[in-house]
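Dihydroorotate dehydrogenase
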Amino acid sequence: MAVSLPGLELSNPIMPASGCFGFGAEYAEYYDLSVLGSIMIKAATAEPRRGNPVVRVAETPSGMLNAIGLQNPGLDAVMAEKLPWLAEHFPDLPIIANVAGTLTEDYVEVSRVISTAPNVAALEINISCPNVKHGGITFGTRPEVAAQLTAAIVAVSQVPVYVKLSPNVTDIVEIARAVAGAGAHGLTLINTLTGMRIDLRRRRPLIANGTGGLSGPAVLPIALRMVDAVTRAVDIPVIGMGGVSSSRDALEMMMAGASAVAVGTANFTDPLACPRIIGGLEPLMDQLGIDSLAQLQAEVDAEHRPDRHRSDFLKEN
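Structure:
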């Protein structure tokens, strides 16, 4: 069940996705968080953010829309309170710190500071949030802009940098290649898809923001397709996410090429979703004749990248 990624030695591949788990304290009332492979904590910005006006969440068939707007207490509070709490209660749990911002300078400064926290093992750079008017997805839709931001963050970070990609683009592979070429150590995908629902009585969108990010089981097939495409195109590892709610979903994500799996919306309907998924992986692997996740990764990698492996061999010999 162990998985090794840049900066991350995980006892298992399952972790809660950023934005769906806060900073862990509420879920720690339900179970011992040390059973998780890692935690992707809620996004941190340079200054506190109140987020978007309410209504910010709406249920949809097989999913939900959200437009939280990156509400968070700000970098100072995360460094002084949130990360120390996790270090005290779960000292061996590697933390992936999600970073967001409005300007390049915001991203760079938050990344520089938060990467110094002793329990932060990696950064996740959010260039894909569809629910903020400035920053977020602004950086994630143009390859050259995404690459420039990635390079600037890699230059100051003390831990490996993973970049979170948006599905709301014409070609996610183009963005992935640009970010990988700029020095990212890994990728996470996908973020939510932009969607809308209408309140028939009010004749207005259900979400005050107008649009929101669609997540939940409905997006799993899209996430699988994009993870498959990206992992065939780049050499850096991918943490896959989007609609995962069962052990079968998680294993599908890994068979699509993901090296680890993040669970998002499922945590809202079932606070025990992550330990349930972790507990179901080994029995499912036994049924399928999979001895280890390392074995599965090797098989998938060989199928995804045969040309690259062949050219590497020719260069070395």
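Residues 232 and 303 are 9 Å apart (CA to CA).
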